[in-house]
Amino acid sequence: MTGRGEEGPRGRDPGADRPGGRRPTPLDTPLRVVARHTRRDGRRIFATGELLAGGEVTAEAKGVFAEITMARARALFGSLGILPGRETG
Question: What's CA 6's distance to the chain center, in Å?
Fold first, then answer.
């Protein structure tokens, strides 16, 4: 199977298999990105986003992010030298 339907790459619209029937994002076109913080549950932060071309949504995303303290970030990533603040080491 080709991933575009049993008829192969020329047999069907490749967008037909995308959730919500979304179309590919066009090249050389101004795009708009919309992101929303939807809720928080303790350290977990929930967000959604959309990519629009010509007012039409071409991509959607959902994310769950974990908040960490600077002390924990320094413990995890301090050796990389990319965090502001006190030196580690």
Answer: 29
**Burial of 74 (C-beta count, 10 Å sphere; 0-12/13-18/19+):** middle
Every domain of the chain and the residues it spans: 27-80
Indicate the length of the chain as a whole number. Answer: 89
Taking the C-alpha atoms of residue 51 and residue 81, their distance in angstroms, rounded to an integer, is: 33
Angstrom distance (rounded) from CA 75 to CA 83: 11
Q: Where are the alpha helices (DSSP H) in 1-89?
A: 70-77
Q: Is the pTM of this model over 0.85?
A: no
The 10s digit of each residue's pLDDT in 1-35 is 444 444 445 555 555 566 655 789 999 999 999 99
Q: Please count the CA atoms within 13 angstroms of the CA of 67 that sit on its side-chain side.
A: 9
